[in-house]
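To make the argument concrete, we let one protein speak, a sequence paired with a row of structure tokens, as a model reads it:
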Amino acid sequence: MSVPSTTDPFSDLVALVVAPGELGVELCRQLAAGLDGLATVELVPDVDAARHWCAASGAVVVPLVAVTDHVGDVDAAVRGLDECAPLGRARVLLLTARGIHTDVAEVVDRERLHSVVPIPWIAGALGGHTRSQVLRWLRDHRGGDDPSDAQTQGQELLEAPGSALLRDLELGPEEVTARLLAAIERALGPRPRLRLPSGVRVTRQGRSVDGVFVVVEGSVALDRDTPVGELRLHHDTTGPVVGILALAQQRRAFFTARTTSDVEVIHLTLEQLDRAIRTEPEMGAALTAVSIRALARRLRRSEQLQVEKVELNRELTEERQRLRDTLEQLEAARFELIEQARFATLGELAAGVAHELNNPVAALTRAASYVTEDLLRLLAAHPQGAVARAALDEARTRPPRSTAQERASRRELEQALGDSGLARRMLAAGVEDPQRATELAGDETRLALVEAAAGIGAAVRNLDVAAGRIGELVASLRAYARPDAEPAPVDVATTLEDALRVAGHRLRGVRVERDYGEVPLVMGHPGQLGQVWTNLLVNAAEALEGDGSIRLTTDSPAPDRVRVRITDDGPGVPVEVQQRLFEPRFTTKHGVVRYGLGLGLAISRHLVEQHGGEISLESDERGTTVTVLLPAAEPSADTGGLPCD
């Protein structure tokens, strides 16, 4: 069904009605009357028919589609209409007899629902409403085109009718203020102007407001007292009527209104304002327009401030991250300084200790050598010198024996000699062969000579061992504290042994077990690695408190990796503090920061990372294991690598 308009400057426009039966016919009649001279009207019974009509009509221009609630689900119906491009560009008018719709969320979200009209509609209103919808469509889709003949003939149709309030909202601030002043003076007669200098408070925060000020010229700002001082919240957004919002605040001012320039104002009491509104028809519209404009400016300013706040928060977050990065860099620099100071101090200490110990150690070594040589010359002239020399040499070279081995040898000698005391003398003299012991038991003079020679040999051996241990300790201390100019291939087992010597006094009562596997060398600084092992060993010893065991293990989990594990069987570390153990100045030692100023593990991690490695900790009630993973040195001539053929 088609209902043409009588005059048709926009003959290409068609409004489509989707409604069944008599309701559709009545809608067509109402729309045709409202759109006369603007568009023709077509009627289809449902959405499928609308799509078929659109496909058959070709290049039809549809500014408006009116649908009723008979289409069922409105979201689905509009979605179906939008499948046809001309209908997808049209404004949608929903006519409904339902009190509530829950099927319009999609069309509202997609901005595809432009108007809702109840059924039954107000007599005579539907035609004008649909005309306004078509005119808005024309503004949106043809307002920027070059005017055609048809548009020129009907140009006046493009101006939609508007209320006095809407017209006032489109005026400039000076014009709307002039309209307000004119309405006031029509109702109340000419009003005296008050001229005020800058800085005058016309309302005060929290004080009662008994009237309003209409600003004719000049500017007024709104301030508010806050816990951080007085803040200026509004200046350009104040508006020409000051005090109107106090009416919604039980006549107490929310702001302090202060003039910021020379101003000219009109004062109205609330009674005068009420009279003007009641007696002058335009007064209400003008006052409403002024208030809406002021509130709109304040709302835009509030939204702008919210955006600025979000941007400032983002900048603040970025600045915090930069500060955090800077602090981490400063912390790293502090570690470097602490390491340098520690190595410098240890270097001076090592040099002094080495200087003081080298001469006594050399003297001990020479004395042991001289005593041995002199004894050998003396024994050469003794009638039983061969026996004594054999006892002396055996005592000097005899390796350390375990308690179990000593006990087994003593039992064997007791069986042969039948005397436990004599068996102990033989064992102390280094005589373990039962047959030889039996021979010596019958010659007290010869036995005494063997005992004396064995005692002297054991003493010389002890001198050699002590001098060697002191020399090794000095060498370890030098290697530990020596500032390394360049990384070099390092045997981790050697650095572990150096650390055990340096920290030996902290390990008294602790059993140390070694399980060194065949591992490649690592490229690094022996002194720095020694510091890592020393820190870890001392921490383990303090956890054991002189009773327990520490196990050192080295292996190679991958060809290019060396792993060092230091395990103790102490009480373990609580889970909640394990992640903080590598933080500077964090300690679990009864709240007291001790060894290394609380920086031992933090520096250890820093040194391991400098070597390109990783350090981790695992702990439970059975003990703690610290694992250090280091990259292996690349094969070269210095590290045992073979050249390519």
Q: What stands out?
A: The two ends are 97 Å apart (CA to CA). The longest strand covers residues 548-558. Residues 281-380 form the longest helix (100 residues).
